[in-house]
Amino acid sequence: MIVFNLQCSDCSHSFEGWFGSSKSCETQIKKKLVQCVSCGSSNITKELSSPNVSVKKTNVTPNEKALRDFRNKVKEVNKFVKQNFEFVGDQFAYEARKIHYSKSNKKPVYGNATKEEVTDLSDEGIEVTSIPWIKEDN
């Protein structure tokens, strides 16, 4: 269905009309089948209507696809880390040092660290890395 703006030539009332096509609208107006909703007159003209273009989002740009693929890979890494590492929160630097210096065969850890803590750990020869973390959608 297409919505057209219509106007009554007698009372100047503007209103919308729904038609199957532009040709159908024009045919019905010529045959006086369209009446003003205000005064009932059949002297109707079709006015300018804003276009209503429906765009399906089927064509994904390469950048959008790359970003979506990247997000999916990051989510996979996040899931792997959650399943195989112990979350230590803000105690990451402390726990990383404890594992490094005691040479304990403890489960790997992940958590939060400031840039300064990461730099200090690296200066001490403790291997750490940062990964992006995507919060799970609720």
Structure description:
With 138 residues, this protein is α+β, with helices and mostly antiparallel strands. It folds into two domains: 2-46; 76-138, no CATH class. The protein is built from four helices and five strands, in the order E-E-H-E-H-E-H-E-H. The chain has helices spanning 22-30, 62-84, 92-102, 115-123, and strands at 2-8, 14-19, 44-46, 86-89, 109-111. The strands form two sheets. It has a three-stranded antiparallel sheet. The protein has a two-stranded parallel sheet with strand order 4-5. Helix 3 links the parallel strand 4 (86-89) and strand 5 (109-111). The chain is rod-shaped and about 95 Å long. The chain starts with a strand and ends in a 15-residue tail after the last helix.
Q: Quick recap of the structure?
A:
With 138 residues, the protein is of the alpha+beta class. The chain is built from 4 helices and 5 strands. The chain starts with a strand and ends in a 15-residue tail after the last helix.
